[in-house]
Amino acid sequence: MDSDLRVRQAGPGDEASLVALIDELAAEGDFDTPLTADAARAYLLAPGCEALLAEKEGRVCGLLSYTVRRNLFHAGDTALIEELVVHESDRGRGVGHALMEAFLEVARARGWVEVSVSTLFDNEGATRFYRAHGFEDEALFLERHLA
């Protein structure tokens, strides 16, 4: 991992970085995303919606976004990792690991009882990454897109 890598909470003024990284993620999967700076700002201001940013040499090179919610079954707060993306030129340098470790540190410090993540079935690299960080196959996550 690069020694000058820093992970911090995203906040006002980071909208362009969020949009750029989500655009990169979407392009790799040949998807479209409607994310704009205004939508990124609304996300960061919404209760329970947060993101961590990795910075190296003053530029943002990675993002981990997540939502936190109260869970009845677990009788505590749980979090769902929504996106984890590292700029293509920074992959393989510990950025994803640093983001995940910072996220898990936040989870432990806040007393969350569970964290979850989903990935596409054929994304073997992401599956290996998450398993290496202690995530296990426990459920099938289904989606229905409405818009």
Helix/strand layout:
Elements: E1 5-9, H1 15-28, H2 37-45, E2 49-56, E3 59-71, E4 76-86, H3 95-110, E5 114-117, H4 124-132
Helix pairs in contact: 1-2
Give the structure's gist in a few sentences.
This protein has helices spanning 15-28, 37-45, 95-110, 124-132, and strands spanning 5-9, 49-56, 59-71, 76-86, 114-117.
Major beta-sheet overview: 5 strands, mixed
> What's the architecture, going by CATH?
3-Layer(aba) Sandwich
Q: Please give the alpha-carbon distance between the first and last residues.
A: 39 Å
**Low-confidence regions:** none
The ordered H/E elements are: EHHEEEHEH
**Fraction of residues in helix:** 25-40%
Could you name the CATH homologous superfamily? Gcn5-related N-acetyltransferase (GNAT)
In CATH's first tier, which class applies? Alpha Beta
Question: Looking at the structure, what is the overall shape?
Answer: globular
Could you please describe the fold and organization of this structure?
The chain is of the alpha+beta class and 147 residues long. Helices cover 33% and strands 28% of the residues. The protein has a five-stranded mixed sheet with strand order 1-2-3-4-5, with helices on both faces. Helix 1 packs across helix 2 (37-45). The radius of gyration is 15 Å and the shape is globular.
